[in-house]
Amino acid sequence: MTRWGMTVDLNRCVGCQTCTIACKHANATPPGVQWRKVIDVELGTFPDVERLFVVTGCQHCDEPPCVPVCPSGATAKRSDGLVTIDYDMCIGCASCVVACPYQARTIVHEKEYYYTGRATAQELQRPHEERLGVANKCTFCIERIDDGLAAGLTPGKDMEATPACVASCIAQALKFGDYDDSDSEVSRIVRDNNTFQMHEELGTSPQIRYLYEVPESMPGRDADADVASLANPANPLVGKRQRYWDYRAAMNFALGGMASGLAIIAWITHLMGLLNTGSLQGANLSAAGIMAIGLFFVFLKLGRKGRFLKVLLRPQTSWMTRETYCVAAFFPAVGLSLLWPHPILFALAGLAAAGFLFAQGQILYSAKGIPSWRAPQVPWMLMATGLFEGLGLLALIAAGLNVSPNLGSILPTFGVGLAMISGYLLLSYKWSGPENSIGPLAMADINQLAPIILGAAYAVPGILFAIANAVPGADVLAGLMAVGSGFFWKFMLVTRICHQQGFALAKVPQRGSGTRAAPARMGHDVA
Amino acid sequence: MAPDGGGKTRKVPLYCNQCVVGPDLFMVEVEDGIAKSIQPNFNVKEHPAEGRVCVKAYGLIQKTYNPNRITRPMKRTNPRKGRNEDPGWTPISWDEALDTIAKRMRVMRAGGLFDEEGYPKLAVTFGGGGTPTRYMGAFPAFLSAWGKADMGFGSGQGAKCYHSEHLYGELWHRAFTVIIDSGNCDYLINFGHNHDAAGGVTGVWRQANARSRGLKRIQVEPHMSITGASSAEWVPIKPKSDPAFIFGLIHRILHERDWMNICDIPFLRDETNSPYLVGPNGYYLRDRDNGKPLIWDNADSTAKPYDADISEAALEGTFNVSGVEHGPDSETWEHEHIGARPAFELLRDHMAAFTPEWAEGECDVPADTIRRISDEFVAHARVGETIEIDGKTLPLRPVGILLGKGINNGWGGYHMMWGRTLLTCLVGALEVPGGTLGTKVRLNRPANNRLNSATHGEDGFMHYPFNPTDRQSWKAKPSVRNGYDTLVPLAANSPWSAALGPAHLPWLFQKDQPTPWPRQTLPEMWICYRTNPAISSWNGPQVAARIAEFPFTVAFAYTQDETNYMADILLPEAGDIESLQLSRIGSTNSGENSWHHEGWAIRQPAVEPAGECLDMTIIATRLAEKVGLLEEFNGAINRGAAGMRLTGEGFDYSLDTTKAHGCEEIWDAVAKAGSHELTNGGNVVGIDWFKEHGFMLGPFSRLEWYLQPRLKEKRLRFEIPYQERIKRHGVQLKRRLHETGITWWDHQLAEYDPLPRYERFPDIWENYAAEVGRDPDEFPFWAVTSRSMQYAWGANVGLPLIREMANNISGHDGVIINRTRAREAGIEEGDPITIESAAGISHGRAHLREGIRPDTVLMIGQFDHWATPLAKDFGLASLNTVTPLSLSLTDSTGSGADLMRVAVHRGHRSKEGNTA
After folding, report:
1. Which pLDDT belongs to residue A526?
2. Total CB pairs under 8 A between chain A and B
3. So what's the pLDDT on residue B903?
4. Which residues contact B411 (CB under 8 A, 6 or more apart)?
5. Which of A8, A311, B536, B643 has a CA 20 to 30 Å removed from the CA of A377?
6. What pLDDT shows up at residue A521?
7. Which range of residues forms the domain containing residue A305?
């Protein structure tokens, strides 16, 4: 077997950017896209300071979180460990982008040129239209590897068959080879040196290994947790807000969640005999309408809209595929139930809506590249709030249509319960944020928003529901607040509390000034 | 995966010499006539970095296809020149452009090459470090055919180059530039030497290997540079106080430790002037009969000429000796039985006051750190050990010291150069394996072999071609406008000397002429090539204003820039991957470009030239024809002006001087001559062979890297520690200048010490404000600069790809300022700020970091463009805008330093202090 991988020697890298630019030449990437990126990191406080350059990019993980989330199967892992993207299959949904904890993936939608608006002959010759609107990332120069192997060359040894970044490195900081071959240089390096993998705790088993020590002259040391610097957005270690899932994706979570919640609550209350068939049909129709708007927005977000049906191709792992299957069941069930109001169709619609809501929670939770989304409370939070918002919607419908007096008495009870659950989940999410490795920047957003959401989306509506039987109209106000605030919360979660996983070093070289500097080494006895 | 173009591709070999630390070799992948990508040239296994090139070479395609390129000759239609005057460029034909230039040149020649003040009518300025010669084809032959031109208008050298190193380095160990033998070095003290940004491909490669092997690098600098980043230790020293630090290191060895047991005593006794006896007037005590400096031999307690058989030269003591001192202007002092002391003892006395505690007060580095680093340096030197290289046993001294530009330039540069060379000599680490080495010569001859330039000179030292200061030979009338041969004896008189003189003085004198001094005339024609002094010089805005005063400027232009904005004619040359040239590679060259081979490499048209751009060799030939200098031009090529003499032992590939030759024909002759010489006629090939293969190499022994064995073989000594020649030249120069009435160079003359006296160098910059009527307290920060590997050299500032790369490195998008200090001043990340000095104002954005002293701000690179496309929109501050052209900040070698005292204000302020 073969397992391609790379080593990065942090003590050799001088941050010259030759690997980055060589990659751009080898792969003709557009302006601003750097598949091989080297960041300039500073640790400590004057005069106790250390500076180092960290090579980043696709880690070709053994357990790549980008693969299972891909709904089309465009992203896959080859038997030699290379994580690949089939540009002709990718629909540009960005699920993989937010799933990557290494900020390795990008999507570029429009053709851009370095000299703004003026394409050079080189750029015109290498247009790579196939990469527009789809996910892109480092391929480990897969063509060089495959062509090289076909020509009898050894990647890592023969530079023509080695990733361009490694082949170009002027400090020999980068090495490439087959980890399954114990004689390869990378295997030897890993065997003879202490190395670490970035974000090892996430279970991705990345195949870039970092060397951090030169015995004697520059030993390594543990990295220090410097909260202040991780709150500094100018720090390149700190993840910035993802921009790939914007308001369009947020609309699907905001509207789809409440719509599915409405369908579920309506079906349950129908089963309890609190909602008549006509009202259920109306509620389902409303849910379908709201959900359709959300889906329409998310459709607008796809990089390759014409390929949207490929979203159906990976039900075995992708929650986005599964969500789509639920949609595919929900809409016909709702439609048919209008014509043929059979309990089976209602059940199908209700269960499809439940599946949809569950899938939505899992979609965010699978985005392993966004610590504030992959927190364990997130799927439950999304479901609880979706149900609560759905209940709020039903309360509004019930008030508007005056459907059933019984419903009016039970909904507030459900409402209080769901408000309490949602509120608890939100607080738990906030409290456990740091231990779920949500960074200071996202925590600042959470800390700012959580009290508002807690009050406006859960506490006040919950209280209003609690007094609804005594105060006429309180349930309507509660419903309005639940729906509006819930919408706002999910919109914020997707578009604002969405900082990418930053970069982190488990160990760092011991060099710099103060306590970070390598200790004195006399070499020879002082006379 | 879709292929890129699907067409037929080929790989074309070329060299890159954009920075001085080249050439390195690469390939251009060309598909259907379009350059597609840059790749290393892995075929050249002999290259020290196995065929790699750095980030800059990868900018060449975007540079070639830059839509902002000037691709047709242009003439100025607006007769007024200045930053606010639109030149009104109009395209013209090559014939019109060259005819216009040639006509002026013919008129100039008709009246002789010199103007009424005796200065050359033609002035020429090239960009840094001689790199333009690797791109200008046969143009040097045109200049040679023309005759004397003023090459002394600087483009920033003196502050931007290793200026003191160039001069003192060549004097002491034939080191125009200095490196360490990093293949063997274990301990390196780097004074602000930003090696990993400036050391080029081979330097980065070698020192990465060395660090990996265990080299411990100590980085002494006010901000943590790229190089400081990967060094074992960062010592945040106060700017310009490095001489105190290095004096502290030396004091530690000579006064706190048992120097007899830790220094390389045989080396000091036999290979330096340490034992030379010095008389009461500070000159060597010499043998009365033969005038040779005397050494006291402890073995038989007698004084002997330095080249006699001496068993045990005395390094300490006072000896009763008779002899004669040779002073300035042939003055002599006869002495009978006086107490004479060896130079080394004078040295010890001289260093006695510079304790680590004293140094701490001067340079802000704890005394204990100074002691430790000094001890580590000595411990790692392995005094007494040897190594075998190519079958020869040589000393092994794996310690080195490198000096950055701000360190070795300007006031204090002499002290640092001397301190570094002395410190290495104390442990015998000069020019030996593992130690501190030179790379090439530019002032001494022959230019292509520094070891062969080590010829016998005075008093047992290497010859050095000082500009004379004696009454008979001193040039009272400078040959060019910067006065290098009048003011700077060390600048020598090679073709490089004008550019290595005080090259900023012409700009300064053009506006503020000192008296007395010959009238500063304007050159009748100025040609500039691959240079932008209006940005790269100290006080770029002032220089731009001076350029605007020139009557006729011819600029070889890539894009519009701040210098050619003032030109009368723009000539577009074919670019780096569009034109043909053959260059020498290998042997030892700048940086750690030390090879085990030497030979030739090609730069050739991988793609057709853009628009009407022409190869420089074609331009030179046509211009020579039009000016009527064709025979002289061809003759110059035959004599070697294109890089290789076309006749030699057993070969004659010279060109017919009577007719114009094509580009291919000229380089074919160079290729044949070059390959003939390289292979002793065994493999003579033409330019077509080079086009296919890219390079040709022959062996170059590693023994040629080290000068010490050659000196030992020739029984020559390193002229360290005592500087009798410098002292004598200083006294003579002072007399000459005073005889002429010149007193404005007196501070500079005070530097001519045989053992450099300490001066508080930071004070010189702090006091500058008072000189121009400002309060020094207004300017509490030091502004320094640092090399940008991505932008430096090569006019890459207009390439968006390079900008994208550079912006990954901190400081390329703003001024680096200490975070705590910034916040105290209410400045946050990204805030607009104004950097103000007593000389100018520059605007930028704040970038807050920890790796910088609180009293220092860092402005990487050279920016503040206002005409160069793309770059003019960067909004970056530049040190060059706030550094003055000033005599008081010019040292005796004619160099200044890249630093200034500044104030930092939040917001963008104009000169009047308004916040914009």
Report:
1. 45
2. 237
3. 98
4. B240, B759, B761, B764, B889, B891, B897
5. A311
6. 73
7. 247-495
pLDDT reported for residue A514: 93
Closest to B699 (Cα-Cα) out of B390, B396, B911, B454: B390
The whole-number pLDDT of residue A321 equals: 98
Given a cut of 70, whether residue A524 has pLDDT beyond it is no
User: Domain boundaries in chain B?
Assistant: 74-161+485-571, 178-438, 761-906
Structure tokens at B666: 């000229």
CATH of the domain at A376: 1.20.1630.10
Q: How far is CA B702 from CA A348, B433, B596, in A?
A: 83, 10, 6
Chain A residue with minimal CA distance to B31?
A125
Query: Average pLDDT for consecutive 10-residue bins of chain B (916 residues)?
Result: 63 96 96 97 97 98 98 98 98 98 98 97 93 96 98 91 95 97 97 96 97 96 97 97 98 98 98 98 98 98 97 97 98 97 98 98 98 97 97 98 94 97 98 98 94 97 98 97 98 95 96 95 98 96 98 98 98 98 95 95 98 98 98 98 96 98 98 98 98 98 97 98 98 98 98 97 97 97 96 94 98 97 97 98 97 98 96 96 96 95 94 47
CA distances in angstroms from A239 to A81, A499, A503, B916, listed in the order given: 26, 6, 7, 34
Report yes or no: B134 and B643 within 8 Å, Cβ to Cβ. Answer: no
B234 chain-A contacts, CB cut-off 8 A = 49, 511-513, 517
Instruction: List b or e across A247-270, with b for residues whose CB sees 16 or more CB atoms inside 10 angstroms.
Output: ebbbbbbbbbbbbbbbbbbbbbbb
How many structural domains compose chain A? 2
| Predicted pLDDT at B790 | 96
Mutate: best of B37, B193, B378, partner A, most A CBs <10 A? B37
Place of tokens 């990204």: B830
Residues with Cβ within 8 Å of A124's Cβ and at least 6 positions away in sequence, in order, are: none
Dihedral sign for Cα B701, B702, B707, B709, please.
negative
Distance separating alpha carbons of residues A511 and A120, to the nearest angstrom: 43
Residues contacting B512, CB < 8 A, separation 6+: none
Q: What percent of chain A has pLDDT over 70?
A: 98
The first and second tokens of residue B869, run together, are 């496309």
**Strands, E, within B777-828: which ranges?**
781-786, 815-818
Helix, strand, or coil here: B304? strand
* CB-closest option in B2, B37, B53 to A26: B37
Cα distances from B98 to residues A202, B93, B447, B552, B561, in angstroms, run: 68, 9, 33, 14, 21
In chain A the first and final C-alpha atoms are separated, in Å, by 56
Percent of chain A with pLDDT over 90: 90
Architecture of domain B761-906: Beta Barrel (2.40)
The pLDDT value recorded for residue B700 is: 96
**Which residues pair with residue B399 across a beta bridge?**
B187
pLDDT digits (tens, 9 = 90+) for A245-284: 999 999 999 999 999 999 999 999 999 998 999 999 999 9
* CATH dotted code for B74-161+485-571: 3.40.50.740
The answer, yes or no, to whether residue A527 has pLDDT greater than 70, is no
Same domain, A274 and A201: no
User: Is B455 in contact with B462 (CB distance < 8 Å)?
Assistant: yes
DSSP code at position A435: G
Rounded to an integer, what distance in angstroms lies between the CA atom of residue A58 and that of residue B181? Answer: 37
- Cβ neighbours of A13 in B, within 8 Å: 230
- Chain A, window 193-232: residues with a beta carbon less than 8 angstroms from a chain B beta carbon: 214-218, 232
Taking an 8 Å cut-off on Cβ atoms, the answer to whether B208 and A128 are in contact is no
Residue contact B233–A44, C-beta within 8 A: no
Report the CATH number of the B178-438 domain: 3.40.228.10
In sequence order, what are the beta bridge partners of A42?
Answer: A51
